[in-house]
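Supplementary Methods, section 5.1.

A reviewer requested that the exact input to the structure prediction be made available. We therefore reproduce it here, unchanged from the version used in the analyses.
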Amino acid sequence: MTNIRAFGLTTAAALLFCANAQAQEADPYLWLEEVSSERALDWVKQWNNRTTSQLDALPGIRQTTDRIREVVDSRARIPFVEKQGKYVYNFWKDAERPRGILRRTTLASYKTDAPQWEVVLDVDRLARDEKENWVWHGMDCLKPKAERCLFSLTRGGGDAHVVREFDTRALRFVAGGFSLPEAKSEVNWVSRDRLLVATDFGSGSLTSSGYPRIVKEWKRGTPLQAAKTVFEGQPGDISVSGYSDHYPGFNREFVLRYTSFFTNELHVRHKGKLDKLDKPNSASAFTFKDQLLIRLRGDWKVGDGTYAQGSLLSIDFAGFMAGKRNFHVLYEPDATRSLQAVTTTRSAILLTEMVNVRSQVHELRQQHGKWERRTVATPAFANVTLSSLDYLESDEYFVTLNDFLTPTSLHLGQVGNDERQQLKSQPAFFDTSGLKVEQHFAQARDGTRIPYFVVKRKDIRYDGSNPTLLYGYGGFEISMKPSYSGTLGRAWLDKGGVYVLSNIRGGGEFGPRWHEAALKEKRQVSYDDFITVAEDLIARKVTSPQHLGIMGGSLGGMLVSVAALQRPELFNAVVSQVPLADMKRYHLMLAGASWIDEYGDPDRTEEWAYISRYSPYHLLDKTRKYPPVFFTSSTRDDRVHPAHARKMVARMQEQGHQVLYWENMDGGHGGAVNGEQQARLNGMVYSFLWDRLK
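The structure derived from this sequence is encoded token-by-token as follows.
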């Protein structure tokens, strides 16, 4: 071993030196974690050239890419809006504006077929003027008038962003206004001259996950360094943030501390003091006027009663803070039903639930101290998404409807009324007349029924010859829902391909219990569920291993990698996008430490024992034959480190397996930032899959 004393290192530094040296010896591809080193980027460019030259030779790839580009840059897409003050705002990108423009109009104009848009910010022009690779990251406006907003911009599409104050009356950035340098900041308005800011304040101000751990109150006209500390979390926390709820007559301030990915503390700030809300740390809490709403991720025993996991409770906020616990149960799940989303308007709470992975909507209003419930009529098989028009001033709300075969439409709903006004509708990007959708259930090893959707031709032959793409995720309580995709339609379904969306455990389709069934040491359950769906497709002769491919992104990228490594005989093509792969070091890279609650801690021997059994980087075996894998990633992804994919590719190449790799130099965790990049990426992905599976 190297003589560490020769370097004059302290004991702590020496231990770190040894650990890094051992890691380097054990992992010859550690250098690929150096995101932008010359050596690593040269390696990326070589792979990009190799992959594109191979895939560009496939028949039809140019036509597929061009048809996708027509979809992503189509001016007939729905311009989704959010209301801020007296305007509705939309961020729009197309072939002429690849970085996009923020524009606005009135709601009355938006309802017409040809809204009169006013450009608020041209990101392409801003990028040229400032010689920066700006990508739009969102806006936060001071309610109710929204005359001042905080605009966020990223360099290349990552999560870290700069923040600048913008005057929506003068349509310009505020000279000397609030401004923050690039960081994973959380910044929220309290009043026109006060913000609650959580950002990188310098050494020691971030958590081990790379997010802020300190909240400060920042007053206009003072330097950020003079901001007053409101709260400090611990280095081992995930993140902290501060915000105000802005309800007239209440205007409460809060500090939210995420102690882990699935646990949090909520503190109310009053006269400079913080009071922690007495709720389970696994539960989330938020306000609706004078009410406190608590959403449970686990059973909660209060007094002589117990409230069930997945329930939504309501109580008078002041009464709760005074010690009362007389909750109203606004929602309680069962074996087939789960709460997916909560939306508020001026006078109502809207609940979106899933019943066997199909959407339903319920409206709740408080009358004379009691909650009245009404089910809102929606199409039977539609995927329904709600968002309030203006939760402080209006009882209108946006309703987005779609399914696999029905183009997305946007409607304006009204509390107390089932009639909706259709505002916009997306055109049909592919022919659905010969297609149908079915829902099936595969039986897992433990007897659990695993739902999945199949999109296929009506005249399909059950002879095992159909090119079939199986998609999955299975984590973080995120539900996979039916949705319309012009890209999928044109690049896959139009050619006769079958598409399958799995609803495996680890997701949120049946609430927290469905998620917890695949947490940490139970992670293999989600892989087994995914494999069970694949086996069911083969058993029903929808397809066969020769014609079955799998695809997933992020956690789903790891899912398909594991499935292919554990059961390679079932698949003939794999697309793993922005995946996790090295689960021994995932918690040391970028935001990885924030996911320990999901996967486990590899530094704990007993937890690495089960993590190692599904870590793709450690499962690779040079003696086994795997289906070809196409990995994609992004240099600018500052959430899931591109080294996960890079190292998998390097090791697979070393072992002689068939592998392709393409890394976008922009894009963040989404993998692409404009229409050209999206079309290029998806053109390669679907062409690779069709070539392998047809």
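The chain is about 20% helix and 35% strand. These observations are discussed further in the main text.
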